[in-house]
Write a structure and sequence with these properties.
Blueprint (H helix, E strand, L loop, with lengths): L3 H4 L3 H19 L4 E3 L3 E2 L5 E2 L3 E3 L4 E7 L4 E8 L2 E4 L11 E5 L4 E5 L5 E5 L6 E4 L6 E5 L6 E5 L4 E6 L6 E6 L4 E6 L5 E6 L5 E6 L6 E6 L2 E6 L6 E5 L4 E6 L2 E7 L7 E6 L5 E6 L4 E6 L7 E4 L8 E2 L5 E5 L6 E5 L6 E5 L7
Protein backbone atom coordinates (compact mmCIF):
# COMPACT_ATOMS: atom_id res chain seq x y z
CA UNK A 1 0.00 0.00 0.00
CA UNK A 2 1.36 3.44 -0.91
CA UNK A 3 2.15 5.69 2.05
CA UNK A 4 -0.35 8.55 1.75
CA UNK A 5 1.81 10.94 3.78
CA UNK A 6 4.63 10.62 1.28
CA UNK A 7 2.48 10.36 -1.86
CA UNK A 8 -0.09 13.10 -1.20
CA UNK A 9 1.48 16.60 -1.44
CA UNK A 10 -0.33 17.84 1.64
CA UNK A 11 0.19 14.63 3.56
CA UNK A 12 3.15 15.78 5.60
CA UNK A 13 1.33 18.98 6.57
CA UNK A 14 -1.70 16.90 7.54
CA UNK A 15 0.49 14.55 9.60
CA UNK A 16 1.96 17.49 11.47
CA UNK A 17 -1.51 18.94 12.02
CA UNK A 18 -2.71 15.67 13.52
CA UNK A 19 0.41 15.54 15.65
CA UNK A 20 -0.33 19.03 16.96
CA UNK A 21 -3.94 18.04 17.58
CA UNK A 22 -2.80 14.92 19.42
CA UNK A 23 -0.38 16.96 21.53
CA UNK A 24 -3.19 19.34 22.42
CA UNK A 25 -5.39 16.44 23.43
CA UNK A 26 -2.46 15.02 25.37
CA UNK A 27 -2.59 17.95 27.74
CA UNK A 28 -6.32 17.50 28.22
CA UNK A 29 -7.19 13.83 27.96
CA UNK A 30 -3.95 11.85 27.81
CA UNK A 31 -3.50 11.11 24.07
CA UNK A 32 -0.10 9.43 23.77
CA UNK A 33 0.57 9.76 27.47
CA UNK A 34 3.21 7.88 29.41
CA UNK A 35 1.40 5.70 31.91
CA UNK A 36 2.82 3.61 34.73
CA UNK A 37 3.64 0.00 34.04
CA UNK A 38 3.73 -2.62 36.74
CA UNK A 39 6.70 -2.25 39.04
CA UNK A 40 9.88 -4.06 38.01
CA UNK A 41 13.41 -4.14 39.30
CA UNK A 42 16.43 -2.98 37.31
CA UNK A 43 19.87 -4.53 37.62
CA UNK A 44 20.80 -1.88 40.17
CA UNK A 45 18.26 -3.47 42.52
CA UNK A 46 15.92 -0.47 42.54
CA UNK A 47 12.19 -0.93 42.07
CA UNK A 48 9.71 1.79 41.23
CA UNK A 49 6.20 2.14 39.86
CA UNK A 50 7.49 5.15 37.90
CA UNK A 51 8.89 2.75 35.32
CA UNK A 52 6.68 3.37 32.33
CA UNK A 53 5.97 2.81 28.69
CA UNK A 54 4.34 4.76 25.89
CA UNK A 55 1.15 2.85 25.22
CA UNK A 56 -0.42 5.03 22.55
CA UNK A 57 0.07 8.04 20.31
CA UNK A 58 2.94 9.10 18.10
CA UNK A 59 6.45 8.91 19.48
CA UNK A 60 9.93 9.61 18.12
CA UNK A 61 11.80 7.15 20.33
CA UNK A 62 13.70 7.02 23.61
CA UNK A 63 16.47 9.47 24.44
CA UNK A 64 19.16 9.40 27.10
CA UNK A 65 19.24 12.46 29.35
CA UNK A 66 22.72 13.13 30.71
CA UNK A 67 21.28 15.74 33.07
CA UNK A 68 19.67 13.13 35.35
CA UNK A 69 20.82 9.79 33.87
CA UNK A 70 17.37 8.73 32.69
CA UNK A 71 15.92 7.16 29.56
CA UNK A 72 12.80 9.02 28.43
CA UNK A 73 10.34 8.86 25.52
CA UNK A 74 9.86 11.77 23.14
CA UNK A 75 6.13 11.89 22.41
CA UNK A 76 4.61 13.55 19.34
CA UNK A 77 5.97 14.43 15.90
CA UNK A 78 8.75 16.84 14.87
CA UNK A 79 7.68 20.34 15.85
CA UNK A 80 5.08 19.10 18.36
CA UNK A 81 6.78 17.03 21.03
CA UNK A 82 6.72 16.38 24.72
CA UNK A 83 9.34 14.75 26.94
CA UNK A 84 7.83 11.85 28.86
CA UNK A 85 8.50 10.38 32.28
CA UNK A 86 11.62 8.20 32.69
CA UNK A 87 11.31 4.47 32.15
CA UNK A 88 13.57 3.81 35.15
CA UNK A 89 14.53 5.74 38.29
CA UNK A 90 17.39 8.19 37.90
CA UNK A 91 20.74 6.50 38.43
CA UNK A 92 19.57 3.00 37.49
CA UNK A 93 21.82 3.22 34.43
CA UNK A 94 24.92 5.21 33.51
CA UNK A 95 24.33 5.39 29.75
CA UNK A 96 21.92 4.12 27.11
CA UNK A 97 21.19 4.30 23.39
CA UNK A 98 18.08 3.55 21.36
CA UNK A 99 17.39 2.22 17.87
CA UNK A 100 14.11 3.60 16.56
CA UNK A 101 14.18 1.04 13.74
CA UNK A 102 14.10 -2.00 16.03
CA UNK A 103 12.59 -0.26 19.09
CA UNK A 104 15.56 -1.53 21.08
CA UNK A 105 17.46 0.14 23.90
CA UNK A 106 20.91 -0.89 25.10
CA UNK A 107 21.70 0.21 28.65
CA UNK A 108 24.73 -0.01 30.93
CA UNK A 109 24.13 -0.17 34.68
CA UNK A 110 26.52 1.08 37.41
CA UNK A 111 27.98 -2.44 37.77
CA UNK A 112 29.02 -2.58 34.10
CA UNK A 113 26.22 -4.89 32.93
CA UNK A 114 25.06 -4.29 29.37
CA UNK A 115 21.33 -4.87 29.08
CA UNK A 116 18.90 -5.01 26.19
CA UNK A 117 15.29 -3.82 26.25
CA UNK A 118 12.85 -4.22 23.35
CA UNK A 119 9.70 -2.12 23.55
CA UNK A 120 6.97 -2.52 24.70
CA UNK A 121 8.76 -4.46 27.46
CA UNK A 122 10.25 -2.51 30.35
CA UNK A 123 12.20 -5.49 31.70
CA UNK A 124 15.81 -5.32 30.41
CA UNK A 125 17.77 -8.54 29.93
CA UNK A 126 21.52 -8.75 30.59
CA UNK A 127 23.59 -9.41 27.47
CA UNK A 128 27.16 -9.22 28.80
CA UNK A 129 29.05 -8.02 31.87
CA UNK A 130 32.26 -6.05 32.38
CA UNK A 131 31.50 -2.95 30.30
CA UNK A 132 34.12 -0.29 31.15
CA UNK A 133 33.19 3.05 32.68
CA UNK A 134 32.51 5.82 30.18
CA UNK A 135 31.44 3.44 27.40
CA UNK A 136 29.54 4.66 24.34
CA UNK A 137 27.00 2.72 22.29
CA UNK A 138 26.35 3.00 18.53
CA UNK A 139 23.72 1.08 16.57
CA UNK A 140 23.92 0.14 12.91
CA UNK A 141 21.52 2.28 10.83
CA UNK A 142 18.73 -0.34 10.85
CA UNK A 143 19.51 -1.58 14.34
CA UNK A 144 20.42 -5.27 13.88
CA UNK A 145 24.00 -4.63 15.05
CA UNK A 146 25.62 -2.38 17.63
CA UNK A 147 29.09 -1.59 18.91
CA UNK A 148 30.12 -0.65 22.45
CA UNK A 149 33.43 1.11 23.08
CA UNK A 150 35.24 3.28 25.60
CA UNK A 151 37.38 6.18 24.45
CA UNK A 152 41.04 5.26 24.99
CA UNK A 153 40.32 1.54 25.28
CA UNK A 154 42.03 -0.98 23.03
CA UNK A 155 39.05 -3.20 22.20
CA UNK A 156 35.42 -2.83 21.15
CA UNK A 157 32.39 -5.03 21.73
CA UNK A 158 30.33 -6.04 18.69
CA UNK A 159 26.70 -7.04 19.16
CA UNK A 160 24.76 -8.99 16.55
CA UNK A 161 21.35 -10.68 16.47
CA UNK A 162 19.46 -7.63 17.70
CA UNK A 163 16.78 -7.21 18.80
CA UNK A 164 15.60 -10.68 19.83
CA UNK A 165 18.79 -12.75 20.15
CA UNK A 166 21.75 -10.48 20.96
CA UNK A 167 25.23 -11.98 21.12
CA UNK A 168 28.52 -10.25 21.89
CA UNK A 169 32.03 -10.56 20.48
CA UNK A 170 35.10 -8.62 21.64
CA UNK A 171 37.38 -7.23 18.90
CA UNK A 172 40.89 -5.92 19.56
CA UNK A 173 41.58 -2.48 18.13
CA UNK A 174 45.35 -2.50 18.54
CA UNK A 175 45.47 1.20 19.48
CA UNK A 176 43.52 3.66 21.69
CA UNK A 177 39.97 3.85 20.36
CA UNK A 178 38.47 7.22 19.46
CA UNK A 179 35.16 5.99 18.03
CA UNK A 180 33.49 3.02 16.32
CA UNK A 181 30.59 2.37 13.96
CA UNK A 182 29.00 -0.69 12.39
CA UNK A 183 27.09 -1.32 9.16
CA UNK A 184 23.84 -3.17 8.54
CA UNK A 185 25.96 -6.05 7.19
CA UNK A 186 28.17 -6.16 10.28
CA UNK A 187 31.24 -4.34 8.92
CA UNK A 188 33.08 -2.72 11.83
CA UNK A 189 34.75 0.70 11.60
CA UNK A 190 37.23 1.69 14.28
CA UNK A 191 38.87 5.11 14.55
CA UNK A 192 42.03 4.84 16.68
CA UNK A 193 44.75 7.24 17.75
CA UNK A 194 48.15 6.74 16.11
CA UNK A 195 51.62 7.60 17.40
CA UNK A 196 51.77 10.95 15.57
CA UNK A 197 48.38 12.00 17.01
CA UNK A 198 46.51 11.43 13.77
CA UNK A 199 43.53 9.08 13.60
CA UNK A 200 43.57 5.84 11.62
CA UNK A 201 40.22 4.46 10.47
CA UNK A 202 40.12 0.72 9.78
CA UNK A 203 37.32 -1.39 8.34
CA UNK A 204 36.69 -5.05 9.22
CA UNK A 205 34.00 -6.79 7.14
CA UNK A 206 31.98 -9.53 8.82
CA UNK A 207 33.86 -12.01 6.64
CA UNK A 208 37.26 -10.61 5.78
CA UNK A 209 40.41 -9.04 7.15
CA UNK A 210 40.93 -5.58 8.62
CA UNK A 211 42.18 -2.86 6.27
CA UNK A 212 42.99 0.82 6.67
CA UNK A 213 40.36 3.04 5.10
CA UNK A 214 41.79 6.50 5.84
CA UNK A 215 44.11 8.51 8.07
CA UNK A 216 42.60 11.71 9.46
CA UNK A 217 44.31 14.76 10.92
CA UNK A 218 41.41 14.89 13.38
CA UNK A 219 38.35 12.73 13.97
CA UNK A 220 35.18 14.48 12.79
CA UNK A 221 32.58 11.73 12.79
CA UNK A 222 31.75 8.64 10.74
CA UNK A 223 28.63 6.74 9.73
CA UNK A 224 27.47 4.02 7.38
CA UNK A 225 24.68 4.69 4.93
CA UNK A 226 21.63 2.54 5.78
CA UNK A 227 21.61 -0.79 3.96
CA UNK A 228 24.94 0.04 2.34
CA UNK A 229 28.67 -0.41 2.86
CA UNK A 230 29.27 3.21 1.82
CA UNK A 231 30.82 5.30 4.59
CA UNK A 232 30.63 8.98 5.49
CA UNK A 233 33.87 10.16 7.10
CA UNK A 234 34.69 13.66 8.33
CA UNK A 235 38.02 15.24 9.24
CA UNK A 236 37.79 17.89 11.99
CA UNK A 237 41.15 19.49 11.14
CA UNK A 238 40.98 19.45 7.34
CA UNK A 239 37.26 20.36 7.56
CA UNK A 240 36.20 17.81 4.96
CA UNK A 241 33.38 15.30 4.58
CA UNK A 242 33.96 12.41 2.19
CA UNK A 243 31.93 9.45 0.99
CA UNK A 244 33.83 6.18 0.65
CA UNK A 245 32.56 3.67 -1.90
CA UNK A 246 34.56 0.46 -2.33
CA UNK A 247 37.47 2.20 -0.62
CA UNK A 248 37.52 5.25 -2.94
CA UNK A 249 36.76 8.67 -1.48
CA UNK A 250 34.66 11.47 -2.97
CA UNK A 251 34.74 14.81 -1.12
CA UNK A 252 31.21 16.05 -0.46
CA UNK A 253 31.84 19.24 1.55
CA UNK A 254 34.63 21.44 2.87
CA UNK A 255 35.08 24.51 5.03
CA UNK A 256 33.79 26.59 2.10
CA UNK A 257 30.43 24.85 2.55
CA UNK A 258 30.33 25.48 6.31
CA UNK A 259 32.32 22.67 7.94
CA UNK A 260 33.96 24.13 11.03
CA UNK A 261 35.54 21.44 13.19
CA UNK A 262 32.85 18.81 12.54
CA UNK A 263 32.47 16.16 15.24
CA UNK A 264 29.49 14.05 14.09
CA UNK A 265 27.83 12.92 10.86
CA UNK A 266 24.61 11.01 10.16
CA UNK A 267 22.71 9.75 7.11
CA UNK A 268 19.00 9.52 6.31
CA UNK A 269 17.28 6.16 5.95
CA UNK A 270 16.72 6.70 2.21
CA UNK A 271 20.46 7.46 1.69
CA UNK A 272 19.53 10.89 0.28
CA UNK A 273 20.75 13.24 3.01
CA UNK A 274 23.80 13.61 5.22
CA UNK A 275 24.01 15.95 8.23
CA UNK A 276 27.12 17.14 10.05
CA UNK A 277 27.43 19.03 13.34
CA UNK A 278 30.21 21.51 14.12
CA UNK A 279 32.13 21.87 17.34
CA UNK A 280 33.45 25.40 16.66
CA UNK A 281 29.99 26.93 16.17
CA UNK A 282 26.32 25.95 16.43
CA UNK A 283 25.89 25.26 12.72
CA UNK A 284 24.74 22.09 11.01
CA UNK A 285 25.37 21.26 7.38
CA UNK A 286 22.94 19.27 5.22
CA UNK A 287 24.36 17.57 2.13
CA UNK A 288 22.25 16.11 -0.66
CA UNK A 289 23.98 12.81 -1.48
CA UNK A 290 22.23 12.74 -4.85
CA UNK A 291 23.90 16.04 -5.76
CA UNK A 292 20.67 17.77 -6.78
CA UNK A 293 20.52 20.34 -3.97
CA UNK A 294 23.65 22.26 -2.88
CA UNK A 295 24.90 21.95 0.73
CA UNK A 296 23.02 24.25 3.12
CA UNK A 297 23.65 25.38 6.69
CA UNK A 298 21.21 25.45 9.58
CA UNK A 299 21.80 26.99 13.01
CA UNK A 300 20.77 25.59 16.37
CA UNK A 301 20.06 27.76 19.42
CA UNK A 302 22.13 25.22 21.30
CA UNK A 303 25.53 23.59 21.35
CA UNK A 304 24.94 20.27 19.56
CA UNK A 305 26.42 17.31 21.41
CA UNK A 306 25.57 14.42 19.06
CA UNK A 307 23.56 13.27 16.06
CA UNK A 308 21.29 10.37 17.08
CA UNK A 309 18.59 9.00 14.80
CA UNK A 310 14.99 9.36 15.95
CA UNK A 311 11.97 7.80 14.25
CA UNK A 312 11.68 9.20 10.75
CA UNK A 313 13.65 9.30 7.54
CA UNK A 314 16.03 12.09 8.49
CA UNK A 315 15.24 13.16 12.06
CA UNK A 316 18.23 13.43 14.39
CA UNK A 317 18.53 14.50 18.01
CA UNK A 318 21.14 17.22 18.54
CA UNK A 319 20.89 17.78 22.29
CA UNK A 320 18.90 15.74 24.77
CA UNK A 321 16.15 17.37 26.83
CA UNK A 322 16.51 17.39 30.58
CA UNK A 323 16.03 20.35 32.87
CA UNK A 324 16.79 22.41 29.75
CA UNK A 325 15.18 22.00 26.32
CA UNK A 326 16.50 19.51 23.79
CA UNK A 327 16.87 19.99 20.05
CA UNK A 328 16.48 17.99 16.85
CA UNK A 329 16.84 18.51 13.11
CA UNK A 330 14.41 17.28 10.45
CA UNK A 331 16.68 17.22 7.43
CA UNK A 332 14.41 16.01 4.62
CA UNK A 333 12.17 19.07 4.47
CA UNK A 334 12.78 21.43 1.52
CA UNK A 335 14.60 23.55 4.11
CA UNK A 336 15.99 21.58 7.03
CA UNK A 337 14.18 22.44 10.27
CA UNK A 338 15.92 22.74 13.65
CA UNK A 339 13.25 22.07 16.27
CA UNK A 340 12.80 22.52 20.00
CA UNK A 341 12.11 19.59 22.37
CA UNK A 342 10.47 20.82 25.61
CA UNK A 343 12.20 19.84 28.87
CA UNK A 344 10.61 17.33 31.18
CA UNK A 345 7.80 18.69 33.31
CA UNK A 346 8.61 19.43 36.94
CA UNK A 347 8.27 16.31 39.05
CA UNK A 348 8.91 13.84 36.23
Amino acid sequence: MVDAVNEYPGGRVFARFTGLLCLGLLLVSGCGTVVPNESTSGSSGSSSASQSIVLGGAQLGLVWSVADSTLRPIIGVPGATQTGAPLFPAGSYVTAAFSAQTQTALLVDPKGNLQSLVLPSTSPQTVVQGIPAGASIAFSPKGAYAVVFASGGTSVLMLSGLPQAPSANSVQAGAPVVAAAISDAGTLLVAARTGNNSVSVTASPASGSRSTLATLAGYGGMAFLPGSEDILLSDSVANTLARYHNGSATVLATRANGLNQPFAVAASLDDRWAVTANRADTNLLRIDLSGVVPPAQSTCACSPTHLSALLGNAVFELAAPGTAPGWMIEADDPVARVLFIPPARTGQ
